[in-house]
Design a protein that fits this description.
This protein is α/β, with parallel strands linked by helices. The protein is built from 13 helices and 17 strands. 31% of the residues lie in helices and 14% in strands. The longest helix has 24 residues. The radius of gyration is 23 Å and the shape is globular. It starts with a helix and ends in an 18-residue tail after the last helix.
Length: 486
């Protein structure tokens, strides 16, 4: 056992010296792939982090519609002319007045979130209000301003706050909480190669101490760079030896060279396993997503349709979920992302388009999970949640909004207690108890609370949750209640 742990550390250090999984020679995205383990989980569960990269403007995503709050909102967001980033109140998709932790207040969704509005109304989606990075509860803005050390370091920095969301530490962290969830459920999978999978490049979120993320493209497994599949005994006459494969995976006397050769061999094996077992795209497999409809800049504009890259990422996730039995996995963590949310300018057009992409992709994925090829409805086994660098300011900068802190997020799936807003939506106004500047919100819910609620559903026990989220004990509500019992 000690030998295996030492070997894992050695391989991890080797990959780190190579610059992480995206920079390993020959584009190898794998390291340790131990074939351990008792299978303790009797069912399948997956969580999917959908990262809205750049900092989503929550003020134009979930909107308070009461007259007084709308007056504050419109005063800050209507600068006149083309620079206005105020939405039309009549266009909002009103949420039911019940199902909120916020009393009798009235809320609505961005007009481009029609499918999400339907999911919320059908109790398949929930909103978690004002989530953000916190080290401990902070009572109000006066406490924060009196002692900035109470807050996470480097607030309002994209890199650091992305890292805080994904790893609970600033930029430079080695492990993410998604990877740590996978570590905690390590024995649930008989094969660990595909426990943590990213359809959106390298991410610290999926990095665990004993679980290494695997990256895929829209085509599936990423082949070793510059070498063709027939070099690896794929698509060749049965029994034909592969000289290139045999050469690059042969045992070496030098320990570093030998470890590299073994990693290459496992990478080839993983590529073959995934290519063989994930469902195909389109006919006979996971349906291809339709194109999404771009929001019109002017009502007179013609309808325009385009491919949705987020929906395509989610198709890759679904195709891998389809191979779960043959791949030997009962617990999986996935990462997808949608970039473009740093809307300092041109927000009125850009944010509308991002909301349309988000809505179309969520509708596609939910419908796919509810009518999964060969399995029927598996949506209660798969939960998707949104995350983002931070929220944005209430005040407009003239053509957009600036970096904030807390923001509202969505959780979607058949295991979600949907149709409700969880947590406190601060009153929309400048200079209130939660405004740390220009309407940037001091979070009332921590990332740890949000994540721990998902972790409980995923199957972690109290001791495991305390290990993954050591700051959780400082918050009065460790489970926010938006997930059905595990």
């Amino acid at each position: 056992m000690e030998h295996n742990q030492s070997r894992r550390r050695f391989v991890g250090n080797l990959l780190t010296m190579a610059g992480g999984s995206a920079a390993v020679p020959l584009a190898i995205n794998l390291a340790v792939m131990g074939e351990a383990a008792a299978e303790n989980a009797t069912d399948y569960k997956a969580i999917i982090c959908l990262f809205l990269a750049g900092g989503n403007d929550h003020y134009n995503t979930v909107l308070a519609m009461d007259n007084e709050e709308w007056g504050y909102y419109s005063a800050q967001r209507s600068t006149g002319g083309s620079g206005s980033i105020m939405l039309d109140k009549l266009s909002l998709l009103k949420l039911p007045s019940t199902g909120s932790d916020n009393g009798v207040r009235s809320f609505g969704l961005n007009p481009n979130l029609t499918a999400l509005h339907g999911l919320y109304g059908n109790n398949r989606a929930a909103i978690v209000a004002n989530v953000g990075t916190l080290l401990q509860p902070i009572a109000n803005k006066d406490v924060y301003k009196a002692d900035r050390s109470l807050a996470p370091p480097k607030l309002f920095s994209h890199n650091d706050q992305q890292s805080m969301w994904q790893s609970l530490k600033p930029e430079g962290a080695n492990f993410g909480w998604g990877g740590k969830l996978a570590d905690a459920k390590h024995d649930s999978n008989s094969d660990h190669k595909f426990t943590c999978v990213s359809a959106s490049g390298n991410t610290v979120f999926l990095a665990g101490a004993i679980t290494t993320p695997y990256q895929v493209s829209s085509q599936g497994a990423v082949a070793i760079s510059s070498l063709k599949s027939n070099f690896f005994d794929m698509n060749v006459v049965a029994g034909t030896p592969s000289m290139v494969k045999d050469t690059i995976t042969a045992a070496r006397d030098n320990p570093i060279e030998n470890e590299h050769a073994q990693i290459v061999a496992r990478s080839i094996a993983a590529q073959q396993a995934l290519s063989t077992n994930m469902l195909p795209a389109g006919a006979g497999g996971v349906p291809n997503p339709t194109q999404y409809k771009l929001p019109k800049v002017k009502p007179s504009d013609a309808d325009t349709w385009a491919p949705n890259p987020l929906a395509i990422q989610l198709q890759s996730v679904a195709r891998i979920i389809g191979g779960r039995t043959n791949l030997g996995v009962k617990r999986q963590v996935f990462f997808v992302s949608l970039p473009g949310f740093d809307t300092h300018d041109n927000q009125r057009i850009d944010h509308a388009d991002l909301m349309a992409k988000l809505d179309h992709a969520l509708a596609y994925f939910d419908s796919t999970m509810r009518a999964f090829p060969g399995s029927g409805d598996i949506s209660s086994q798969v939960t998707l949640f949104t995350a983002s660098d931070f929220g944005r300011t209430l005040s407009s900068n003239g053509d957009g909004s600036d970096h904030g802190w807390g923001a509202h997020h969505f959780v979607v799936g058949g295991a979600v207690y949907g149709g409700k807003i969880y947590g406190e939506v601060p009153l929309v106004a400048l200079n209130n108890a939660w405004d740390v500047g220009s309407g940037a919100l001091l979070p009332t819910t921590s990332v740890e609370q949000y994540a721990a609620t998902l972790a409980t559903w995923f199957g972690l026990d109290g001791a495991q949750i305390a290990t993954v989220f050591p700051r959780l004990a400082g918050f009065s509500k460790p489970d926010l209640g938006f997930m059905k019992p595990a």
